[in-house]
Amino acid sequence: MTVAGCPAGFRHEALFYRGGLNGFVAELASMVSETLSSGGSAVVAAPTDRVERFRGLFADHERLTLIDMTGLGANPGRIIPAWRELADTALERGAPFLGIGEPVWVGRTEDELVECHRHEALINLAFAEDPYWRLVCPYDVDGLDPNVIQDARATHPASFDRRCGLSEAPVDALGVLAGLEHPLSEVPDHAATIRLQPGRLADVRDLAREHAAVAGLSAERAGDLILAVTEMAANSIRHSGTGTLDIWRRDGRVVCQTRDRGHIQDPMVGRRRPGLSHSSGRGMWIIQQVCDLVQLRSSPGGTTLRITVA
Amino acid sequence: MRTCGAGHDPSGLGCHDHGCLVYADTETFLARGVAYLQEGLRRGERALYVQGVPLAQMREHLAGLGSVDELLAAGALELVSLHDVYADGGLDIEQQTAFYHDAIDRALAGGFSGLRGLADGTTLLAGGADADGIARWEATADRIMAERPMTGMCCYDRRVVPARELALLGAVHPLDCSGDATSEFHVFSFGRRGLAVSGSVDTFTAAEFQKVLDLAGPDQDFTLDLSALDFIDHAGVLAITGRSGATDGEPRMTITGAPQMFTRVAELIGVPV
């Protein structure tokens, strides 16, 4: 069913703004205000300073949800399922829904930017069958590298820039994803390596526990690391019979990587909340939920999965 | 919480403790068994040795304790043939339960502080009893030890009993007295009509864990204490929550003492706890 006066289907738009925080507010406050006054609901998921400014502007509006994207989106792999749930809740009301999501901010690392690019491409696949709602992704043109802006144009069917106006072009999401299959950086020589074998996950956990302790992770994050590493090792063994696990530390973070001969063909793996009746998919879901960064490279030749926990 | 975990020295076992010792040679079994019984004598407990060999050989086994004749005469030691407790290599849980309750009562009436049993169950398995049945009996025996003044150490010969069955038998003891852990998790009696879990449960042990829960679970509603868990992944959480959701007249299981990791995983996969 289409709401009268609304275009059919999901819309994914990039908004290129200038002027930092003030520019962000200038472009988006009126958009949110219009949605709320028309009886719709809105979600702003953006870095802390942007969210705080909106909290000041809109007080505690009952139909506006504010989310600190530096928490939710630290790992970009967590953002799509969050939008899925937010959109489902909003769409149930039958009124317009506006999402504002800023997953790319100044200071993101190169590795994070690659995964953000993948996330933006996957958004087009994840919500392709949705009824009408709008997800606007603001990009800070003044602060971000021009290549990042170029990437954003490739993943948003519509882009708006106050200087150039609206431009629309179809998105080749699968093409973008294929372009992101370049290999990960080399595993450092000082990494500890375990050959994965069925039934021997206790060794893997002991190794993860040691690295968490040396890196100084909190008890809670150490628990998350051990959980993620167990799920990774179990996946390799279950889908490939065996594999290799490397673990090392970098800048106070623990990085762990599994390599095996399996092939994960679903680009959305780990980005859908597993239903109670599903028998698989929980491992990658948990990994995406608890890690600070997840880098998956999978081809018919094998799968490399790298996680970072801080 | 009762004493639980791996790598325990048998001579350190105290009242209510229940250990499993897997041995690969008779010398190791005897050295650890004698040290274990010696500690009981020191504590003023009556020692009970249950073994599947003739009585004369059992006396020889315990030569390390000192004068076996004197200990027997004083009532500080009892030797019982495995075949007198366990009917013809088979299992009669009711009869065995009665035997141990009676042995504890007699020890207390005789002025001892409790009963310390050393039992070698290898012959039971060699005689054809199935490991599931023995595991069910071990869980019953564990309840007796949790509730009454008794200490137990059950021994199995690695040369006779297959590794899979050793893992199952190790899992139904709170303590692992072997050098190498036989099972990554332990399920044992704790609290009023309750069970507790210690150790780790993951994808590769979850099915076995679920089986052990079924074998050890009381036949009435009970609690499952998780406070001694070291690690659990989503498969382990599902093994537990799947069990507690059991309907059709099965006993209900209530979770207590869930560690942060358990609730975190349950929340992540959307399983109500």
What is the approximate shape of chain A? elongated
N→C terminal distance of chain B: 22 Å
What is the typical, i.e. mean, pLDDT of chain B?
92
Strand order of the largest sheet of chain A: 3-2-4-5-1-6-7
Query: Roughly what percent helix of chain A?
Result: 40-55%
Rg of chain B, please?
Answer: 19 Å
The biggest sheet of chain B, with number of strands, parallel, antiparallel or mixed sense and barrel status, is: 6 strands, parallel
Distance between the termini of chain A: 45 Å
Provide a quick synopsis of the model:
The complex is a heterodimer of chains A (310) and B (273). Chain A is of the alpha/beta class and 310 residues long.
SSE topology sketch:
The complex is a heterodimer of chains A (310) and B (273).
Chain A: E1 10-17, H1 20-37, E2 41-46, H2 48-58, E3 64-68, H3 69-72, H4 79-92, E4 97-101, H5 110-126, E5 133-140, H6 146-155, E6 158-161, E7 165-168, H7 173-178, E8 192-196, H8 201-215, H9 219-240, E9 243-250, E10 253-260, H10 282-290, E11 293-299, E12 302-309
Parallel strand pairs in A: 1-5, 1-6, 2-3, 2-4, 4-5
Antiparallel strand pairs in A: 6-7, 8-9, 9-10, 10-12, 11-12
Chain B: E1 18-23, H1 26-42, E2 46-51, H2 55-61, H3 68-73, E3 77-81, H4 82-85, H5 93-109, E4 115-120, H6 122-126, H7 131-147, E5 150-157, H8 163-171, E6 175-176, E7 185-189, E8 194-201, H9 206-216, E9 222-232, H10 234-244, E10 253-256, H11 260-268
Helix pairs in contact in B: 5-7, 7-8, 9-10
Give an account of the 3D structure:
- With about 300 residues, chain A is α/β, with parallel strands linked by helices.
- Chain A has helices at about 20-35, 50-60, 70, 80-90, 110-125, 145-155, 175-180, 200-215, 220-240, 280-290; strands at about 10-15, 40-45, 65-70, 95-100, 135-140, 160, 165-170, 190-195, 245-250, 255-260, 295-300, 300-310.
- In chain A, strand 9 and strand 10 form a beta hairpin.
- In chain A, helix 1 crosses helix 2 (about 50-60), helix 5 runs parallel beside helix 6 (about 145-155) and helix 8 packs antiparallel against helix 9 (about 220-240).
- Chain A is elongated, with a radius of gyration of 20 Å.
- In chain B, about 40% of the residues lie in helices and about 20% in strands.
- Chain B has helices at about 25-40, 55-60, 70-75, 80-85, 95-110, 120-125, 130-145, 165-170, 205-215, 235-245, 260-270; strands at about 20-25, 45-50, 75-80, 115-120, 150-155, 175, 185-190, 195-200, 220-230, 255.
- Chain B is elongated and about 65 Å long.
- The two termini of chain B are about 20 Å apart.
- The interface of A and B includes residues 230 and 283 of A.
